[in-house]
């Protein structure tokens, strides 16, 4: 019987996972998330807390005085039920699928899937693989059991959790009598979701196998010395799980900010009040965006502000007779689009500036498309009407092509002829903005925790990280704990667009904030949190998520396989190479030959050369400089091998210099020979041996798994050690030569030019399979 997970307990008691986590926290029990398992004793603690709550407020239930409470509970319940559905949807959405899953899928099409099945049946394989050199490319992908993934070492959050968990379990709650909670039945055939990285202990619990058993098995099968705290990446965990006939699936990594935003979206309409519109100015270069913004600002400078230093904080508000308008002070649609990250729309209305003397130009069209894509209302400002060459009608005419039809022509788009120079039409434009805002019924709840978007951010020498935040919901206060992407902190001070220190900022208000731990990115969401601890943990989760994403998505080192494509795409100008060889003479010879390969498109550069094994530091240098490593008669040491896999560095091993030159030349021309990988197709066990004159030793064998085929290569293994590799001399069933023998059948095998075969030996058959490029 498995331990229940937080979300299961939550479901059982009609609570949100959050609430359960909260209860655990209050009792000093740290859990990672809703997927975390809960010890029996801890379940008792939860039940006690829930029970206590009920007892505290018995009257409420009877009298039902508070409809809202019931309502919100219902909402929570609904939400709780919807969540799994959501995550399923996410999985189906191609873009959201974690890389690990995709990789796995691919893997099952090539040697990966087959390899894993074989491993399940014959754990010795891992030993064998590490004893073998897989062809001249030397990408020993099979040696996963020895892998010490670099990623793991970085995962400080996992470590942290693990430590706290350990501490808590020895605490006072550990000996509370187990509760009678009905645990969900554990079904070993059901796939188990696990995170990208987890400790062996967590893994053992997840697949319901005693950790000691796994540790022993790994040790015996050559998987190396591991302990409870050894971190396993998904790939390794998956392999071990297969040994126990368990299926594991990668837990979906969720973007913590997206999740928070999702939870945050529901808002009671009665709490909403009208908020000022947020307006941006777009248009073709030189059509007067900056001049128009300046004209609006100067036209609206009130007596109090006159003479004051105008602050350029990326946004400003102007007061009109019909209310406040917030302008984003970043002309051009680049800023506008960058602020659409996470779907957090910053702008309500776009002012499309078109010069009356120039008409619709390429960037005008671009701006229209961006605004339309974002679903932003467009108001056209026909600028420079003071110019003699101005032709308002022509602009109107041209814009009809883009479905911007003026009201007086029967359309719905507002057109305002203006002059940033003479200020003509500016007031009219402001009125039209307010009118549009009214129609849009822009509303927000000012009485909630603030949420906003970063418009600009920089590191100020004296003040530290400074960010201009446009508050979108709620009210931000000085002293609020906030999380902004990877940054967090407490709002130390807020300065408005007039340079005044303010204590609060409501919806649609831009403010400069001080007190962040680092400079956030423009476009990132700013969220006020319950307390600083929560803010920090949100930022940390964001960093962890970002790093995972970076590792899985953006890390792509140069490889010979895609060199040609990259040269064609113009993304590779220098082909950096690190050369390691057994003797200095070879290093020099390779350097010279390689440099001669440079052509107009790409310069071949040997950035480092040396004698001896390929080390981790060679790999790190290659990773940092996007280089390929070439080794002659040398091998990578184990750390280098792991690092190369982790850093995705292309590491190629050769015996002959000529082959290396040939490969690189071919890669530059896009004509690299296909790469082959070994695919094990079957195993036979030798049950009896016979000697026959003229033939040699015949191994009377039984096919354990897969198939032994003519044309495949044989590998003779005794006690996990590979003794011989070579061709099959013959494969016979009774006295007949056959093409293949399948699992469960007996046969006579002869190895070409090899007779040292003994009872109990294993014969592995493999073929070299081409990897599609
Ligand atoms: N006559 C006249 N000239 C104007 C008016 N508005 C802007 N200009 C001039 O047009 C030129 C471009 O104006 P900007 O405000 O810099 O235009 P912009 O669209 O912000 O330009 P970029 O920021 O380069 O894209 C400047 O020389 C302005 O003086 C106007 O209403 N009338």
From TrEMBL:
GO terms for cellular component: cytosol. InterPro entries: EF-G-like_DII, IF2_II, IF2_N, P-loop_NTPase, Small_GTP-bd, T_Tr_GTP-bd_dom, TF_IF2_bacterial-like, TIF_IF2. Residues 277-425 are annotated as: G-domain. CDD domains: IF2_eIF5B, IF2_mtIF2_II, mtIF2_IVc. SUPFAM superfamilies: Initiation factor IF2/eIF5b, domain 3, P-loop containing nucleoside triphosphate hydrolases, Translation proteins. Residues 75-93, 124-140, 155-164 have a biased composition (Low complexity). The keyword Glycosyltransferase does not apply. Residues 49-190 are annotated as: Disordered. Gene3D superfamilies: 1.10.10.2480, P-loop containing nucleotide triphosphate hydrolases, Translation factors, Translation initiation factor IF- 2, domain 3. Residues 378-405 form a coiled coil. GTP binds at residues 283-290, 329-333, 383-386. The keyword GTP-binding applies. Keywords: Coiled coil, Cytoplasm, GTP-binding, Initiation factor, Nucleotide-binding, Protein biosynthesis. GO terms for molecular function: GTP binding; GTPase activity; translation initiation factor activity. It is found in: Cytoplasm. It comes from the Bacteria. Residues 50-73, 96-107 have a biased composition (Basic and acidic residues). Residues 141-154 have a biased composition (Basic residues). Residues 274-443 form the Tr-type G domain. Belongs to the TRAFAC class translation factor GTPase superfamily. Classic translation factor GTPase family. IF-2 subfamily. NCBIfam families: IF-2, small_GTP. One of the essential components for the initiation of protein synthesis. Protects formylmethionyl-tRNA from spontaneous hydrolysis and promotes its binding to the 30S ribosomal subunits. Also involved in the hydrolysis of GTP during the formation of the 70S ribosomal complex. PANTHER family: TR-TYPE G DOMAIN-CONTAINING PROTEIN, TRANSLATION INITIATION FACTOR IF-2-RELATED. This is Translation initiation factor IF-2. The lineage of its organism: Bacteria, Bacillati, Bacillota, Clostridia, Lachnospirales.
């Amino acid at each position: 019987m498995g331990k229940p997970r937080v979300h299961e307990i939550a479901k059982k008691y009609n609570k949100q996972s959050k609430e359960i986590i909260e209860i655990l926290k209050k009792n000093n029990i740290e859990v990672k998330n809703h997927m975390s398992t809960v010890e029996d004793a801890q379940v008792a603690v939860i039940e006690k807390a829930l029970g206590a709550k009920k007892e505290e407020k018995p009257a409420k239930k009877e009298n039902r005085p508070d409809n809202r409470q019931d309502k919100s509970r219902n909402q929570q319940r609904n939400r709780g039920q919807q969540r799994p559905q959501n995550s399923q949807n996410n999985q189906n959405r191609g873009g959201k699928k974690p890389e690990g899953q995709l990789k796995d899928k691919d893997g099952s099409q090539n040697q990966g899937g087959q390899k894993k099945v074989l491993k399940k049946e014959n754990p010795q394989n891992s030993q064998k693989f590490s004893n073998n050199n897989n062809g001249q490319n030397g990408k020993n992908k099979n040696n996963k059991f020895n892998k010490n993934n670099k990623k793991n070492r970085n995962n400080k959050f996992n470590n942290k959790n693990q430590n706290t968990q350990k501490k808590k379990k020895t605490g006072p709650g550990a000996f509370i009598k187990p509760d009678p909670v009905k645990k969900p039945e554990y079904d070993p055939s059901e796939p188990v979701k696990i995170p990208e990285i987890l400790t062996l202990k967590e893994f053992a619990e997840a697949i319901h196998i005693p950790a000691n058993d796994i540790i022993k098995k790994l040790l015996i099968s050559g998987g190396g010395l591991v302990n409870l705290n050894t971190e396993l990446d998904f790939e390794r965990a998956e392999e071990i799980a297969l040994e126990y006939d368990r299926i594991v699936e990668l837990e979906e990594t969720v973007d913590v900010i997206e999740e928070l935003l999702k939870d945050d979206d529901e808002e009671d309409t009665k709490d909403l009040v009208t908020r000022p519109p947020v307006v941006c100015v777009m248009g073709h270069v030189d059509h007067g965006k900056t001049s128009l913004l300046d004209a609006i600002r100067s036209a609206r400078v009130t007596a109090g502000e006159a003479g004051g230093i105008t602050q350029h904080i990326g946004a400003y508000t102007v007061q009109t007779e019909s209310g406040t308008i917030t302008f984003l002070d970043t002309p051009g649609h680049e800023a506008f689009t960058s602020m659409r990250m996470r779907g957090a729309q910053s702008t309500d209305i776009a002012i499309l500036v078109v010069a009356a003397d120039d008409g619709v130009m390429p960037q005008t069209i671009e701006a229209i498309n961006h605004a339309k894509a974002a679903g932003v209302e467009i108001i056209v400002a026909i600028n420079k009407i003071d110019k003699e060459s101005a032709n308002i009608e022509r602009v109107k005419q041209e814009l009809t092509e883009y479905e911007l039809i003026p009201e007086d022509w029967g359309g719905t788009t507002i057109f305002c002829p203006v002059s940033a120079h003479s200020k003509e039409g500016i007031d009219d434009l402001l009125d039209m903005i307010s009118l549009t805002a009214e129609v849009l019924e822009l509303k927000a709840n000012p009485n909630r925790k603030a949420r906003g978007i970063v418009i600009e951010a920089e590191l100020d020498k004296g003040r530290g990280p400074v960010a201009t935040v446009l508050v979108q919901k709620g009210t931000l206060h000085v002293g609020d704990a906030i999380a902004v992407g990877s940054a967090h902190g407490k709002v130390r001070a807020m300065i408005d667009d007039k340079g005044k220190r303010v204590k609060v900022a409501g919806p649609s208000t831009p403010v400069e904030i001080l007190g962040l731990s680092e400079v956030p990115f423009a476009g990132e969401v700013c969220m006020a949190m319950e307390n600083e601890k929560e803010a920090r943990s949100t930022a940390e989760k964001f960093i962890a998520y970002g790093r995972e994403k970076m590792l899985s998505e953006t890390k792509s080192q140069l490889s010979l396989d895609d060199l040609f494509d990259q040269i064609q795409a113009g993304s590779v100008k220098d082909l950096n190479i690190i050369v390691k060889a057994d003797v200095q003479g070879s290093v020099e010879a390779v350097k010279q030959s390689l440099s001669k390969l440079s052509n107009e498109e790409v310069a071949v550069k040997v950035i480092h050369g040396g004698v001896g094994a390929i080390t981790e530091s060679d790999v790190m240098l290659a990773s940092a400089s996007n280089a390929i490593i070439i080794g002659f008669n040398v091998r990578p040491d184990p750390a280098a091998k792991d690092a190369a896999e982790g850093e995705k560095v292309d590491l190629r091993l050769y015996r002959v210099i000529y082959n290396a030159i040939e490969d690189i030349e071919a890669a530059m021309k896009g004509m690299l020979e296909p790469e082959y990988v070994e695919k094990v197709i079957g195993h036979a066990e030798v049950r009896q041996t016979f000697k026959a004159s003229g033939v040699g030793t015949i191994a009377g064998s039984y096919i354990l798994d897969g198939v032994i085929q003519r044309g495949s290569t044989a590998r003779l293994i005794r006690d996990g050690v590979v003794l011989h590799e070579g061709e099959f001399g013959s494969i016979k069933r009774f006295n007949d030569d056959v093409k293949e023998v399948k699992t469960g059948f007996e046969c006579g095998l002869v190895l070409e030019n090899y007779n040292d075969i003994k009872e109990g030996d294993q014969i592995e058959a493999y073929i070299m399979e081409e990897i599609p490029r």
